[in-house]
Amino acid sequence: MNERLVLLGTKGGPALRPGGPMPTSTLLQIGGRSAVIDCGLGVTRGLVDAGVPLKTLDLVFITHLHSDHVLELGALLHTAWTAGLASPVKVFGPVGTKDVWAHFCRSLAYDIDIRIDDEGRPDIRTLVEVVEFGEGLVMDEGGLTVDALRVDHPPVTECYALRFSHGGRRIVFSADTNYFPPLAGFAAKADVLVHEAMLSAGVDRLVARTGNGARLKEHLMASHTLAEDAGRIASEAGCAHLVLNHLIPADDPDFGPGDWEAVVRRTFSGPLTIGRDGLELPLGKSSAAPA
Fold first, then answer.
1. How confident is the model at residue 220, as a pLDDT?
2. Strand ranges, E, within 82-135
3. C-beta of residue 288 within 8 angstroms of C-beta of residue 239
4. Can you tell me the distance from the alpha carbon of 140 to that of 37, in angstroms, rounded to the nearest whole number?
5. What are the residues facing 164 on neighbouring strands?
6. CA angle 39-15-44, nearest 5°?
7. What pLDDT shows up at residue 288?
8. Is residue 266 part of a domain?
9. What is the pLDDT of residues 99-115, one digit of tens each?
10. Degrees (nearest 5) of the Cα angle 242, 7, 204?
């Protein structure tokens, strides 16, 4: 298995617009395991386009239960099942994830039951194990460890950054958060930090297009990280590579990669990638700066 990071969906927020990117989801292949981080709309198509056979689905992690991170969880698992999934899948998520999966299965009970009887499939409800987690160690299997840090994403209280460690490498995902200085310690010496980012110059235009006016802007400013602050976290952490994801706005034609880089360069001088759907980054040996 090629070890890589693939950004399947890079848009912040649940709305879709013509020709625009899809909401948040990422594939991380490391240590012989394939992990899907978040399941926004489009995750299933994104995995197929990335060359991942759905029947090999292995690990799924949900950072929090906003719809742009969890809406396609059930559909991904069900589609993988209809594609031949017959081995167990572990889903890790915050409190409430078990309910999301259970209610999906209830809503599709007719289809699930008839496919078991008619097509001889195993019961998907026994193939999927949902593990709810809080801050601390989430998983430790075969040399791959995953740790969680509760971040600040009001009004959501159960939202977690995730750190994947294997063979001396660290890949860290910020999840959705406002500027949260403790994240720098959590991401210390990371080989890759995938951090959400918001471009302040684009917020008013986004609010005007979306509606909800002052209330939406208030939420965005209180719950998300400006791109320059994402750079500040990466610098303080000594990260080897910063990847901007969950972009706000992600589909405004007046703002391109150069606009994002210009603000991040105020606070971070290292390797920088501005996320786009389908972007693939190979994972080499650990390259973070020495302590």
1. 82
2. 89-93, 128-132
3. yes
4. 16
5. 146, 171
6. 30
7. 47
8. yes
9. 999 999 999 999 999 99
10. 75
With bands split at pLDDT 50, 70 and 90, how would you rate the model's confidence at 255?
confident
The whole-chain average pLDDT of the chain stands at 93
Q: CA distances (Å), 18 to each of 49, 168, 287, in order?
A: 19, 41, 38
The answer to whether residue 144 sits within a structural domain is: yes
| Beta bridge mates, 76 | none
Structural domain tally of the chain? 1
In a domain, 59, yes or no: yes
Return left, alpha or beta for 65; rule: phi > 0 is left, psi -120 to 50 is alpha, else beta: alpha
Please tell me the number of Cα atoms within 13 Å of 105 on its side-chain side.
17
Cα dist from 154 to 74, 162, 218, whole Å: 25, 18, 11
- CATH number, domain containing residue 193: 3.60.15.10
Give rounded-to-5 percent helix, strand, coil for the chain: 35, 25, 40
Which pair of tokens denotes residue 215?
């209330």
Could you tell me if residue 23 is inside a domain?
yes
Q: Which domain holds residue 42?
A: 4-280
User: Is the CB of residue 243 less than 8 Å from the CB of residue 194?
Assistant: yes
Residue among 249, 195, 218 nearest 13 (CA): 249
- Identify any residues that bridge with 7 across adjacent strands, giving them in sequence order: 26
How many angstroms separate the first and last alpha carbons of the chain?
30
Take residue 152 and report the two structure tokens written for it: 């600040």
- H or E stretch at 263: helix 257-264
Q: pLDDT tens across 141-150, in order? A: 999 999 999 9
